[in-house]
Amino acid sequence: MTRLRGSAHAIALGFAVGVFTACTPFLGLQMLSAGLLAWLMGGSIVASFLGGWIANPLTVPLIWLSSYHIGMAMLGQSGRFESGQFREGFARLWQALWERSPDVLQAAMEVLFPVLKPMSIGCVPLGLLLGGLFYILVRRSLEAYQMRRPHGEPQLEGVRLRPLRLRPSHPTLL
Fold first, then answer.
1. Which residues are within 8 A (CB) of 52 and not within 5 positions of it... i.e. 6 or more apart?
2. Please, which residues bridge with residue 62 across strands?
3. Is residue 119 within 8 Å of residue 68, measured between CB atoms?
């Protein structure tokens, strides 16, 4: 991220927006919404894509489980998930898809809505918390990096960089 153009604030804001959208349960829309939100808020769009990679196969189960339980708590419901009901609903959805039934959308809503509703609600405070945390971490890291590199020039302790001069090694190349 040190190679991205922009202020430490803009890059950190873009990254934080990416982290926020990574907490949403809507796969496929996360990067699009991250870029759009970063653009609207004046953050770095590229950094928002990098922040979106917080959601990866290792972290998604933890993010989704956390957002589900937070959402259930916000709705005042128990966080207990009935796997038997989910299996029955999923079987109905699969059958509707297999038979090309017009009831596919209804079957999908019966299966997904009880899970997506609390996740959609719980992802907001989770995303705000994680996004805020990453904003602070990224901004402070970039500011510290920029303080060590004044004017964007590489700074090596005790070493002055000189321009490279090419000299032909063979007399016929003169």
1. 18, 19, 21, 22, 30, 31, 34
2. none
3. yes
Residue with tokens 């809503």: 109
Contacts of 41 (CB under 8 A, 6+ apart): 13, 17
How many angstroms separate the CA atoms of 142 and 148, rounded? 10
Instruction: Tell me how far apart the alpha carbons of residues 141 and 50 are, in angstroms, rounded to a whole number.
Output: 15
Name the residue type at position 48. S
Domain ranges, ordered by start, for the chain: 8-77+119-150
**Tens of each residue's pLDDT in the chain, 174 residues:** 667 888 889 999 999 999 999 999 988 899 999 999 999 999 999 999 999 998 888 898 899 989 999 999 999 987 666 666 667 766 777 777 777 777 777 777 777 788 889 999 999 999 999 999 999 999 999 988 888 876 655 444 444 545 555 566 655 555
Amino acid at 63: I
Q: Which amino acid is at 122?
A: G
